[in-house]
UniProtKB/TrEMBL annotation:
<keyword id="KW-0326">Glycosidase</keyword>
<dbReference type="GO" id="GO:0008706">
    <property type="term" value="F:6-phospho-beta-glucosidase activity"/>
</dbReference>
<dbReference type="InterPro" id="IPR018120">
    <property type="entry name" value="Glyco_hydro_1_AS"/>
</dbReference>
<keyword id="KW-0378">Hydrolase</keyword>
<comment type="similarity">
    <text>Belongs to the glycosyl hydrolase 1 family.</text>
</comment>
<dbReference type="InterPro" id="IPR001360">
    <property type="entry name" value="Glyco_hydro_1"/>
</dbReference>
<dbReference type="InterPro" id="IPR033132">
    <property type="entry name" value="GH_1_N_CS"/>
</dbReference>
<feature type="active site" description="Nucleophile">
    <location>
        <position position="368"/>
    </location>
</feature>
<dbReference type="Pfam" id="PF00232">
    <property type="entry name" value="Glyco_hydro_1"/>
</dbReference>
<dbReference type="InterPro" id="IPR017853">
    <property type="entry name" value="GH"/>
</dbReference>
<protein>
    <submittedName>
        <fullName>6-phospho-beta-glucosidase</fullName>
        <ecNumber>3.2.1.86</ecNumber>
    </submittedName>
</protein>
Amino acid sequence: MKQTDMQFPEGFLWGGAIAANQVEGAYQENGKGLSIADILGNGIFNPPYEHPGKKNPYHEAIDFYHRYEEDIALFAEMGFKALRTSIAWTRIFPNGDEETPNEAGLQFYDQLFDCMRKYNIEPVVTLSHYEMPLGLVKDYGGWRNRKLIEFFERYAIAVFKRYKDKVKYWIAFNEINVLLHIPFVGGGTVIEEGENKKQIIYQMAHYQHVASALAAKACHEIIPGSQMGCMIAAGPYYPHTCHPDDILTAMEMDRQVYFFTDVMARGYYPTYVKRWFKEYDVELDLTAEDEQLLKQHTVDYISFSYYKSRCASADPSGLEMVSGNLAMGVKNPYLKASEWGWQIDPTGLRFTLNQLYDRYQKPLFIVENGFGAVDTVEEDQSIHDDYRISYLRDHMIEAGKAIEDGVELLGFLSWGPIDIVSASTGEMKKRYGYIYVDKDNEGNGTLRRIKKKSFDWYKEVIASNGASL
């Protein structure tokens, strides 16, 4: 397909994506309780602090809580059709197990969604994005406890009822497959030495699958015409060589990711899981009622983050490994990498879109894709981030090719349209945005917003519905 033939469908949802814990700040204002994000070290891969009051980059973040009107106006200036954000669960239920929601928290999101609607920006809202209530961790052990299904359903119903006229697109859990790699961040659970790690992880996953099904049920009942999605951290595993063992290993690694979407999109546990559970000595607390809920309340669309691909080898010993966005893999010698070692593979996005659509035949939604880099502010206050433009353009072109392949794609929401606290490292210097925020890793700065070169570039992409790519 010629680049000049690029066609995105009418109504395509161009925009960006953020998360409450990485932008809002105001971590104890207006009745908000502590979340797991409030006690993390510098990034999700570091252990939690012993003392929740210790200074943390998420505590102030970029002060979106007080500056959202300014930021939404900038997104509107770019022409955003949609903005993905999350609700901080602890603003609504500070400990997580209350019977009645916190009105001040509900009012904040009323104001935020009203502001977005004023500019005709469609909210895409995640219910749980790496910031579950710390109270549910301390009092119940996190998602290893079935009680959390009840608490999550109560939370979901409360926000569905409140925002039924304001939000159409919902996502239950951000990157649900993070449970495999960081169970504390994904499930609020610390796995002790001697425990069967696989048993706990897959039990947590099951309870979240059931919670997602109940959320889908409530969403459809409360909000006619609403769409409930699931979300994974995606990116294919390529065989490191054409050796059959490498090909089989790559298939197995892909299945570890697609296990979650298999359950939530198809409504049942796939057959290959029976072998896994036997090998791992896993026995799920899975009831007949659970199975019915999963079957009857599947998701309407599949959303995902995509930053990189990876390679898999049956024998990785001696091979160079690389990491990025949750998962390790063998280094691909054909790809370049970012400053943080994330290998850059636009073609892998097209591959992923086709792989997911062939597997499920449900609408897809790219809700995270972007390039983290160190940006330099010139003396005239300009920021020339051509590297970011190049990365995003190449990925958007591949998304367009996937649409030509026949993939039903709802939209493209780039990650971090404004600089935010990095989830993986807790840094500010790792910037993704079209808008620079004057803040450094030590928390110093004015929080002033500055448009980068990519701001006007993305504005033209949206205005042309991708034709300018």
